[in-house]
Amino acid sequence: AIVDIAVSLENFSNIGLGQQGIYQLRFTLYHLNSDGTKKYLALPYTVTPTSSQREPNRINFHNLSPCRIDEHTHQFYSKCFMIRYCEELIDFGNLVEFRSELDIAQGYEQTPFFLEVELLFVEINAVGGAEYAISLFTAEGENAAVLSPVSKKCLKINGILETVVSSYIPVT
Fold first, then answer.
1. Could you tell me the pLDDT band of residue 141, with boundaries at 50, 70 and 90?
2. CA–CA separation, 121 and 17 (whole Å)
């Protein structure tokens, strides 16, 4: 069975300034085999804009590099953005579609999926300051700054195949 799962990225809200820096979100979707010993990664295959962003390809503090799909690791990366102030709101406006294949066997409808969301980070001072940070990124998505994971959340999604209707599961 082929399963398509859409993940909608609306925005990122910085509730309390942890550290000024450059951030990015990394998404991995997968399911496990029946005995839980092997991970099957879903392939992110398309990204669709869901909002009309002004100048989406223009590089600025909230759009240092565009979102991208890494076909080798089967992961989706949000755009890179800089957080400088408390309560900054970063708009993403993307719908990412993942595709996975399941063997049709008894009980396959109850197969849980797992969505891992990682927050990647590098300090502004580590890349030479806020103004210099923009020069490290290009419109093609290449970036010279190395971001490291600082937080990870794994969401277990049960019963995704038991119904034909869509579900909304917010990641907060």
1. very low
2. 13
